[in-house]
């Protein structure tokens, strides 16, 4: 056989042996998500919140684009995010972009969950597509998170929700759903500072301490004072649309030994469970769990009960991306699907 032919066959053989990562979300679901929530220029539109965009949503969409193995859309979202939200004097992101205001970004304060999600998505993109630029961008964000958003307490270092406005004397306002455990875990691999494991540990400690109301549930917001945790008097004291992400991130990180997860599971498996409950007075929503909440409830069942969600009373469907216009529910559903696959649930 001619040498050129042998070389061509060898190249073909090696190419066929290359590892390819299959998408983690269905192609049709991803197309529907883009059509519903991502503009042509890469802005992610929160249809349930007056059409604003926020760093959290941009980060989620970048993660979904990586999961869909769609680099073109990933770049579109990242470029918009960088150009419109990375407008501070550091590498963090303004938390909100409002299409109805002239300057769009009226508050340059950041949101640490959005910063984490964007850095995590960039790191995953760098690994998937072998991009040094993505990795450099991710590291820059992570270094500023470490520099500006970590506060030392008697319970260990904690993650501030933003750079400004959350520390008042001895009172520190925290949001436990901002502890994106799988992101913190992966960040610790490329930024090997012991602070990340300490942050993960403090999140677990705070979650165990944050069990309030009749059903012993975590609230959207807590106040840490020395070694004591209480409900916030200024921000949401509900087990609501922030706190519902706590079990998502714990299960994604394969952390199932936190007592509060059992309490959430018990609450969510009650018939006709309200979408939120006020942990101060027991008031609750007049409507039942959304499809996104039900999807995470399904995932939690699989985490806690040996992959057998036999106890749940709610109809559980797949992402329903093509049949829903609820931005948050669809996003949570797709994230839960990815988390289940990566956690081997």
Any key phrases for this structure?
345 residues; alpha+beta; Glycosyltransferase; two-stranded antiparallel sheet; 12 helices
Strand order of the largest sheet: 5-6-7-8
**In which range does the helix fraction lie?**
40-55%
Would you identify the regions where 5 or more consecutive residues have pLDDT less than 50? 3-19, 309-320
H and E string: HHEHHEHHEEEEHHEEEHHEHH
The first-to-last residue Cα distance is 50 Å
**DSSP E strands, number:** 10
- Find the structural class using helix and strand composition: alpha+beta
Radius of gyration, taken over Cα atoms and rounded to an integer in Å: 21 Å
Question: Any idea what the shape is?
Answer: globular
Task: Report on the architecture of this protein.
47% of the residues lie in helices and 9% in strands. With 345 residues, it is α+β, with helices and mostly antiparallel strands. It has a domain at 21-147: Glycosyltransferase. The strands form four sheets. It has a four-stranded antiparallel beta sheet, with no helix packed on it. A two-stranded antiparallel ribbon has the order 1-2. Helix 3 (55-67) packs across helix 12. The longest helix is centred in the middle third of the chain and has 18 residues, at 112-129.
């Amino acid at each position: 056989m001619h040498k050129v032919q042998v070389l061509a066959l060898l190249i073909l053989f090696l190419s066929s042996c290359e590892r390819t990562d299959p998408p983690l979300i269905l192609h049709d679901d991803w197309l529907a998500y883009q059509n519903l929530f991502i503009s042509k220029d890469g802005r992610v539109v929160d249809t349930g919140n007056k059409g604003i965009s926020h760093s959290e949503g941009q980060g989620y969409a970048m993660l979904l684009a990586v999961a869909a193995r769609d680099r073109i859309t990933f770049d579109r979202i990242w470029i918009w995010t960088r150009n419109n939200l990375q407008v501070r004097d550091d590498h963090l992101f303004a938390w909100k972009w409002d299409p109805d205001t002239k300057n769009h970004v009226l508050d340059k304060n950041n949101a640490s969950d959005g910063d984490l999600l964007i850095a995590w998505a960039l790191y995953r993109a760098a690994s998937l597509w072998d991009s040094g630029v993505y990795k450099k961008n991710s590291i820059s964000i992570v270094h500023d998170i470490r520099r500006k958003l970590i506060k030392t307490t008697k319970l260990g270092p904690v993650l501030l929700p933003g750079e400004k406005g959350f520390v008042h004397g001895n009172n520190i306002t925290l949001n436990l759903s901002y502890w994106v455990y799988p992101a913190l875990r992966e960040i610790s691999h490329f930024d090997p500072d012991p602070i990340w494991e300490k942050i993960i540990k403090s999140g677990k400690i705070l979650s165990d301490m944050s069990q309030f109301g009749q059903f012993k549930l975590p609230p959207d917001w807590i106040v840490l004072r020395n070694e004591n945790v209480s409900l916030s008097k200024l921000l949401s004291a509900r087990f609501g649309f922030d706190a519902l992400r706590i079990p998502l991130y714990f299960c994604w990180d394969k952390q199932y030994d936190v007592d509060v997860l059992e309490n959430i599971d018990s609450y969510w498996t009650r018939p006709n469970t309200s979408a939120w409950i006020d942990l101060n007075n027991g008031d609750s929503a007049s409507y039942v769990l959304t499809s996104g909440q039900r999807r995470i409830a399904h995932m939690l069942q699989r985490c806690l009960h040996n992959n057998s969600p036999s106890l749940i009373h709610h109809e559980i469907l797949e992402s329903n991306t093509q049949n829903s216009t609820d931005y948050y529910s669809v996003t949570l559903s797709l994230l839960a699907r990815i988390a289940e696959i990566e956690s081997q649930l």
